[in-house]
Design brief:
35% strand; 171 residues; mainly beta; 13 strands
């Protein structure tokens, strides 16, 4: 099997309806997140990158942060973290050695950011701060690589758990 290249989180398929729900949000100041980063509407009312083990996720940034010096000066389109949207991302363990297995399907894991690349991944070792549910595995070709179950840091389809989706919070 192969080692899959790291890819940013990306919305790939709606489970209900015909399109993926997106919305544009004004950014907080000095936001330097990359496309594919989980983002949240902070207490200030502006978009920021999530921290480790985020309590809530509004969605996945579809573009890079603009690093402005003024709050609200720039906006970013976000694919909303609705439980009825499938996303794609890598399954890793923090050291680049996690191998995808059929038994990962249906399991819940946390998410983390890979420091060298700035790309987020599903953290196979984090079964405490669960934020996503693995649905299946990407087996197509991406970046010239044929993906398969058994790949190292393989690509998975996942959804965000409803309790962590900021736009879907049940109160």
């Amino acid at each position: 099997m192969a080692t899959a290249p790291r890819v940013p989180f990306q919305a790939v398929k709606p489970l209900v309806g015909l399109s993926i729900a997106t919305e544009s949000f004004s950014e907080s100041l000095t936001q330097t997140f990359k496309a594919g980063a989980p983002v949240v509407i902070a207490a200030s009312g502006y978009l920021t990158e999530c921290g480790a083990d985020p309590v809530l996720v509004m969605g996945i940034a579809q573009g890079d942060g603009h690093n402005t010096a003024v709050v609200g000066q720039a906006a970013t389109m976000v694919a909303l973290a609705h439980p009825c949207t499938l996303f794609m991302g890598n399954l890793d363990n923090g050291s680049g050695t996690a191998i995808t297995a059929v038994t990962d399907r249906g399991k819940s894991y946390g998410i983390a950011k890979d420091a060298p690349t700035g790309k987020w991944y599903i953290d196979k070792l984090d079964t405490t701060a669960k934020r996503v549910i693995v649905w299946g595995f990407w087996d197509g070709v991406q970046d010239g690589v044929q993906a398969a179950v058994g790949d190292t840091i393989g690509w998975t389809y996942f959804t965000f758990g409803g309790a962590f989706s900021q736009g879907f919070l049940v109160v």
